[in-house]
Amino acid sequence: MKERARFTVGFDLDMTLIDSRPGIKDAYTLLAAETGVFIDSDLVVSRLGPPVEWELANWFPDDAVPEVADRYRAIYAVHGVEGCLALPGAHAALDAVRAHGGRAVVVTGKYGPNARLNLDALALEVDALHGTVFGPEKGGRLREEGAQVYVGDHLADIEGARAASAFAVAVATGPYDMAALGAAGADVVLPDLTAFPGWLADYLDAQPA
After folding, report:
1. Cα-flanking dihedrals φ and ψ of residue 30, to 5°?
2. Is 80 exceeded by the pLDDT of residue 3?
3. CA distance 143 to 189
4. What value does the mean pLDDT of the chain take?
5. Which residues contact 12 (CB under 8 A, 6 or more apart)?
6. pTM
7. Distances from the Cα of 58 to the Cαs of 14, 61, 65, 84, 109, in angstroms?
8. Pick from 62, 89, 95, 144: most CB atoms within 10 A?
9. What is the DSSP letter of 172?
10. 4-36 in b/e burial notation, b at 16+ Cβ within 10 A?
11. Where are the alpha helices (DSSP H) in the chain?
């Protein structure tokens, strides 16, 4: 294996590294019961990606959203974390980055402290975590970390990679299929993270030493 300069790979969290749908559904169901406001939690988990405030605006008046968002995050921290699962290939993807001498960072729209709870609960070890950023806003955090690659499941993750001038790797484990991710401009589309270690090795071999 040829010697390489230090590199960094960024990862999204929800539906990229973890299947957060069970925990998020439980948290929204509890929030609905507590507030007396109907929330279709099945619909919510079918379109994960944007910030919580965006989703809550579909169910609550605008002036109530900030307070309800804080309550949702508190409920999730207690009741939602245990329901989440590592997606197939998640641990191996992070291990592959380290095996090649790289750094793995998470840049996510999820509230940072809750994202940390998810990572710790599932023993997903990363070198840095940045929360509460979405779409092109992710570009700034990726640039700060020097990420050359960003992996995500959402169309907005492709926008984040573009904003950082990073290579956009899309995985079809979220709300979009491979065709949609490719049409949105991903540099490469993988069915899931189980294909990532092999792709990474090929990608790095093609880079200048």
Report:
1. -65, -40
2. no
3. 22
4. 96
5. 106, 107, 108, 150, 151, 152, 153, 154, 157
6. 0.95
7. 20, 8, 10, 24, 18
8. 89
9. T
10. eeebbbbbbbbbbbbbbbebbbbbbbbbbeeee
11. 21-35, 41-45, 52-56, 65-75, 90-99, 112-121, 138-145, 155-163, 178-183, 196-205
pLDDT band at 1, cuts 50/70/90?
very low
Are 146 and 164 spatial neighbours (Cβ–Cβ below 8 Å)?
Answer: no
In tens, the pLDDT along 88-145 reads: 999 999 999 999 999 999 999 999 999 999 999 999 999 999 999 999 999 999 999 9
What does the angle CA 61 – CA 65 – CA 71 come to, to the nearest 5 degrees? 130
Tens digit of each residue's pLDDT (9 = 90 or more) over 40-61: 999 999 999 999 999 999 999 9
